[in-house]
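Batch 3, record 17
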Amino acid sequence: MAGIELAGIAHRYHGNDAYSVNPLNQHWQDGGAYALLGPSGCGKTTLLNIISGLLSPTGGKVLFDGQDMTGLRTEQRNIAQVFQFPVVYDTLSVAENLAFPLRNRGLEKLEVSARVKEVLTLLGMTGRGQQQASSLNADDKQKISLGRGLVRTDVNAILFDEPLTVIDPHLKWQLRTELKKIHRQFGHTMIYVTHDQTEALTFADQVVVMYEGSVVQIGTPQQLFDKPQHTFVGSFIGSPGMNIIRCGVDGSDAIIEGNRIPLHQSVTATGDGLELGIRPEHIQLSGSEGVSVEVTVVEDVGKHIVVRTRLAEQEIDVIVREGTAIPERVFLKFDAAKLNLYQDSFLLDSDP
Amino acid sequence: MKVHNNRAWLLVLPVLVLVAVSAIIPLMTVVNYSVQDSFGNNEFFWVGTEWFQEILASERFHNALQRTLLFSALILAIEIPLGISIALAMPRKGFGVSICLVLMALPLLIPWNVVGTIWQVFGRVDIGLLGYGLANLGVDYNYTQDTMDAWITLIVMDVWHWTSLVVLLCYSGLVAIPEVYYQAARIDGASRWAIFRYIQLPKMKRVLLIAVLLRFMDSFMIYTEPFVVTGGGPGNATTFLSIDLVQMAVGQFDLGPAAAMSLIYFLIILLLCWIFYTVMTSTTEQDATAAGERRHE
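Prediction for the assembled complex:
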């Protein structure tokens, strides 16, 4: 187990001018459970492969507990990685598959079989060790891929690259819970790449959000929800995501399409590119006071109602409780304490 | 009750006619010859299984069969491992891929008798580059007189002609392996040999089966090249079943024995192909059965 430090890591794929991963510094604490969250193509997998050594970065250094690993091959880094699609060695049995990484490292036979037995129990596959791996279904194959990562006790970190993509939805929860349990039990450093916010938020203590090759925010699920540092984080997390509304500022008021919205404290912001961020959960419908809007769609999603409204050309989503009556003329009241002001997509720090 | 619509047979008819004309009728003609003795004026006498007994008992047939089996065994033993190694060494991307593929495909495009002629001339001691070169190096090489030299020439020629086929098949199997398998192998610390043994070879199994079957059938039926290069000689040293058969049917015009031999020849190929197929697919079937059983649980 080790803490992982990325110092100025950057990557550009061959023949591309643009960086896939912009130069970044990042520290992953020893024993932490991290999620790396972002849309497809934002550089998450690239970053993961740089850590495991499957990819050598264009620039920067990878350090494990302060030791430079940049020049070392994957095998020497002692990393476990589970991929999006299950990888099993078809001609080997389940037990032989689990033993494979240990045998390659020349472990004693007795130790290998003891470890394999432990992992089989952990995966809930006791007694199926002799089964041919090629005859397993996708779920079980992915469990085996996972098991090959867990079978080594001395790994520096376990990396997951969207490991639950091919897994049945009902099993996803179960496996994720299992992973959290394993994390608590063994305290491996775990980095979990996903584009699914639910997965990220339930798995990790710390979520690292990536967008277009850069880390835009690191924080607990609560921080990501309440104080998104970047409009992307706001709109990516939540369903529907945060409303991002173009606005102006005058003193301690934000101005949206001529409506004055009081901010909870005055901010000094000038210039263009100002946007107000507010979660749909933090807006109230009113029949008389607030900002007058036009309702476009009302969606009842079961646990709550999503009201999609329009103010001039800007769309604002509101979440209200089941059974709320939608007034004929709709006004919106914003919760001043939950308003975030952004300039050029980044949060303006309102706390002094 | 299910209503049977017999008009469906009409749709099968064209295929049936084609197969009948191209395969069944000619084959039955051969069967017809194999159980009769023929004289001039189209006179035929029923002889039953006499020709079959004669062929199966004849030393000439045994010798030709042994030579052919040995030839096929050597061809498979050389071309399959060589083909796999070349496929493994070929580049996976970049401009080298097209160059390799074109070079590999070239021998496959040359007609059999041309290949024979090329090597016949190539190996000649008086004017051939290979034969003349070897002679000047002091090697005593003459494929028209020495049995060993004749065999080596034929085998090198076949390896030159057909290894590409094995290479191309294996290469297609190799490039179909997703990159993630190699990544997982690196994470698992697999050696080069382990990667070959547990990833590449299993993934190549299906194309290898095709390669083995094709190379076995082709080498077991080889005719044109040895006919052009050695003509079955020196002596009978390279008289394979096919050459023997043609000598019997065309040279001696023994239609009955030739037909019986053709059928035996055909059955041997069928039997050996079936054995190859069964052995090579047995593990896959086990997997399939195991998966099927699990589904029923």
